[in-house]
Each structure stands twice: as structure tokens, then as C-alpha cells.
Design brief:
Length: 139
């Protein structure tokens, strides 16, 4: 299982995964709330639903901007980006999207399977070999 380079990279993956999961959960909630508010003619709920729709749009822009930096450590593809590349033949989508599977796996399991190279990556920092001395030309 592959590991990530730094704690900052892990934080970036978890942030993008959280925002993507929040967006996926907010979209049906906003649609349902908007439908209910419209059928009951509740103007307060309509304003709330439109505010949540705006928040969902802002989250979508954040996911779009941050997802390109969350890359698989092996194939270097942005695993939560909205690419139109061909996924691995064994990669399965969740709710119609491969990036949803990655996001929910990061949040629930602490590791994910890249939809492009189909390799697993743990949300852990790589252990570097600290016992090796750096090579100096004058040694």
C-alpha cells in the first residue's frame, strides 16, 4: 500500500474529501427543501434553500480548485478531479462518480484506491530512511 509524502498532503486529501462529501449530501437536501418550500409556499424556507444552493456552489468551486492538487502518489493523476480520462477497468463508481468513491473511502476507511492505476494509498506519511547519511562530494 502506498503512502503520502507529508501531513499537508494528507490534510489536503481529507479537506477535499470532506468538501466533496458535503457537496454530494447537500445537493439532494437542497432540491428536497426547495421542492417542499415551493409546494407549501414558505418564503423563509425558499430563502434558506437558495442560501444552501449558493453554499453548495461555493463548495463546488472549492472542490474544483483544490482537487487538482490531491494526486495519486504512484500515477500522479488527480484522484478527486473531474477528469474525463478512462478509469481502470476494475474501478467502480459510487453514486455515478469515481471521485465520490475516493472521497468516501478516505473519510470512512483512511485509505483509497486510485481509479486510474487501481493502487491503494493509505492516509499515512511515508517513513523516510533517516539512518542514511547524505552523500557529500567531499566525504
Amino acid at each position: 500500500m502506498h503512502q503520502l509524502r507529508s501531513k499537508l498532503t494528507i490534510t489536503r486529501f481529507r479537506l477535499v474529501a470532506t468538501l466533496l462529501a458535503l457537496k454530494v449530501l447537500l445537493i439532494p437536501a437542497v432540491i428536497g427543501l426547495l421542492f417542499y418550500a415551493y409546494t407549501t409556499s414558505n418564503h423563509g424556507l425558499i430563502k434558506l434553500a437558495l442560501g444552501l444552493a449558493g453554499l453548495t456552489a461555493v463548495i463546488g468551486v472549492l472542490v474544483w480548485s483544490l482537487a487538482s492538487s490531491a494526486r495519486c502518489p504512484l500515477c500522479m493523476m488527480p484522484v478527486m478531479g473531474n477528469l474525463k480520462c478512462s478509469p481502470h477497468r476494475r474501478a467502480r463508481p459510487l453514486l455515478g462518480s469515481h471521485r465520490n468513491r475516493v472521497a468516501f473511502a478516505i473519510l470512512s476507511k483512511g485509505w483509497f484506491t486510485c481509479p486510474y492505476c487501481h493502487e491503494q494509498t493509505a492516509m499515512q506519511v511515508r517513513k523516510s530512511n533517516l539512518l542514511k547519511k547524505p552523500l557529500h562530494p567531499h566525504d
